[in-house]
Amino acid sequence: MTAARPRVLCVAGSPSAGSHTRALVGHIGGLLERRGFDSGLADLAVLDLPRSHPDHYWSEDPHPVVQAREFIGAVLASDALVIGTPVYHSGYSGLLKSAVDLLPSDAFAGKAVALVSHASGPRGSATACEQLRQVVKALGGWAVPMQVSTVSADFTPAAGGQRDLDVTGPVHARCVELADQLTAFTRAMRGAADSGTTAEGTAGDTTENTTENTAEHSAEVAA
């Protein structure tokens, strides 16, 4: 019997429509589709999620707002996540924080998570990813070692006023490695769940295989 394709949810945490953050997580989602994933997008700029509230956080009842229930359901149904944020005052966006606070405390359990950020300048652009590592840990997930931070110069104009990541630039190579790591971690964690072993026992082996997986996709770096 053929195993179901793994599902990855790409979360764009920018309040701006057509943002660099959305383009970045979409680019990584495309790389993951080429690695056998089904990719979905949660663009927080258009989802119109309600603000989180302690009454809902601690309640076992379904959230009363349909958009929130759908977002929570999409996260829980995913095997892996790509979480992207713009950098505001050296931190991740309030919109993303509010969305994460809608989730149950074990929402990322058994899931590999990739973290990316976008800033107008290079200073502090990686800080938001480091902050999000603590959030991933709190929700029971496993953040992969690689993270990607971009600036505006890493993108090129696209049709309809949109933007695309420049595949000739150095950031694309990091995105390829990030996709390889997320793929390897997801496969290991799905295997651990199927066999009953712990994720802790597989994470180290997965990291060792990341370099090999990256080499297999070296042609993409030059694309």
TrEMBL record:
Segments of skewed composition (Low complexity): 191-213
Protein keywords: Flavoprotein, FMN, Oxidoreductase
InterPro entries for the chain: Flavoprotein-like_sf, FMN_Rdtase-like_dom, NAD(P)H-dep_FMN_reductase
Pfam families hit by this protein: FMN_red (PF03358)
Domain of life: Bacteria
EC numbers: 1.-.-.-
Record domain NADPH-dependent FMN reductase-like: where: 6-150
A GO MF term: oxidoreductase activity
Record protein name field: NADPH-dependent FMN reductase
Lineage of the species this protein comes from: Bacteria, Bacillati, Actinomycetota, Actinomycetes, Kitasatosporales
